[in-house]
Amino acid sequence: MRRCRRPALLVLLLAAPRLAAGDEEHRTARAGEAASGTVFGKTLTATERDRSRITYLNAGAVLLPGGPDEKEFGPMGGLYLWRVSADGTSRLRGIVAVISNEVRWDRALPGVGGLSLVLTFDSLTPWWARSEYVAGVRIAAGELKWNQARGGAGLALRKSLPPGACDNGLDAALTYEPGGLWFLRGSDTAPGYVVPVDTYEGRLHLRLRADALERNLLEMPHRGWSAGLDGLAGWRARWEPWGFPAAPETGGRNWQAVSGFAYAAFAPFPGLSERHRLIASLHAGAGSDLDRFSAFRLGGGSNWGDFETLSRIALAGAGVDEIFSSRYAILDLEYRWEALFFLYLQLRGTLAWADRIVPVAGGTATKTGSLPVLTAGLTSGLPWNLALELAASWNFGLERVTDGRLEKGSFSLLFSVTKEF
C-alpha cells in the first residue's frame, strides 16, 4: 500500500531542519499517485498505485516496558485485502490473522438504486486464556479461554462522496449477525470460579460510514472529514450467573451498545504549506448491560491504515485490549509535518475519559477518570514496498500497582511494519 524504492530512513534526523522558507506552493502527494523528490542529490521515487486492488501484510507490537504481567508485549498485524470491481458494484475488505479475522463483502443489487447485499464474518479465537486487569494487576483467578465467531447478512445503501476515490462514500447498512460464544478454564482459573455457559448470540448491527477524506501517499488523512456510527443490540440464548461465587456476574443476556467516531484534517494556520497538517478526532461509546464479552475494549494500537481502521479505539500507554469499559470518550489532536514526501513526523495530544475498574479499600469499584496522553512518532515509506510506523507515548492518568504502591503513569512503544504486494 505504501511504496518507496530507495533507502530513505537514514535522512530522518537530517531532514527535519530543512523546512525551507517560501514553501507555500508545496503540494503533498496523494494516495495512489506517483511521486519523487531529491534528497542530498539522490532522486527517490514512489510509483503509481491502483487503490482499488490492495494487498499488504502487517506485523507489529505494542511494548510496555515494565508493564503488567503478560501485557509487556502485545503483537498485532495480519493480511489485508481490499478489492473494488471496475464498475464499483462490488467491494471486498478482509483482515486475516488466523486467531482474529474480519471480512466484509457487498454487491450492488441490479435495478435497486444504490442498494447492496452485505455479507460479513468475524472471529476471535486465541488458544490461550485471557485475564482482566485492575490497575495493571492481572486477575489470574478469573482467566478464561473464550472465543467468538459470527456471520452476518443484510442490506446497505451506498452513495459516492467527493473527492470520489474508491474509499470515499456514504454507507448505511443494517445486518443481522448470528454467532456463538464458547468458554474453557485456564491453567490459573480458581477452582471455584464458575465458567460461563456456551451460548448462541445474535446481534442486530446498524452501521453508518461517511468518508470524504483526501489521503496522502502513506494513506494518512490529509484533508477533509470522516465519521461513523455503530449501533449493536445483542441477545444470548443461554446465560446463567458466572464468575466468582461471592460476587457472581448476572448481566449480559440482552445488551446494547452505541459507538461513533469523527475525523477532520486541515491546515493549522492560513499561509502554511501542505507540509503542515492538523488532525482532530473523537471516539466515543456507551452501552447497557455490558460484560467483559460485549464491552468496549481500550488499549494500545494504531488506527493508521484504510478508511475502516479510523473506527478503531486506540488508547496509548495501555496494553492491547487491557481495559474493558461501558463508557468512553477519546479526543485526539495531532500536528503532522511532512519532512519528505514519504516521511511524516507527528506529535499528538490525547484526552480520554473511561469507566474502568480500579482498586479501592476492601475491593474494587468502577470509576470514571481522565487519561491524558502525549505521543511522538513517525510514519515513513521504505524500500521494497515497505512502510514503518513508530510511536512513543506516556499516559499520565493510567494507574499501575508497583511494589504494592498505586502510581500514575504508563510508557508504551508502538512498532509496525507493512509490506505491500
What does this entry look like structurally?
The chain is an all-beta fold and 421 residues long. It has a single domain (9-420), classed as Porin. The protein is 1% helix and 58% strand. The strands form 4 sheets. A 16-stranded antiparallel β-barrel has the order 3-4-5-6-7-10-11-12-14-15-16-19-20-21-22-23. A hairpin with a 3-residue loop joins strand 5 (90-96) and strand 6 (100-108). The protein is globular, with a radius of gyration of 22 Å. The model is unreliable at 1-22 (pLDDT under 50).
Features:
mainly beta; Porin; 421 residues; 23 strands; disordered N terminus
Round the Cα radius of gyration to an integer and report it. 22 Å
- C-alpha geometry: globular
Strand order of the largest sheet: 3-4-5-6-7-10-11-12-14-15-16-19-20-21-22-23
Give the N-terminus to C-terminus distance in angstroms: 8 Å
Taking pLDDT < 50 over at least 5 consecutive residues as the criterion, the unreliable ranges are: 1-22
Helix share bin:
under 10%
Structure summary, number of beta strands: 23
Mean pLDDT: 91
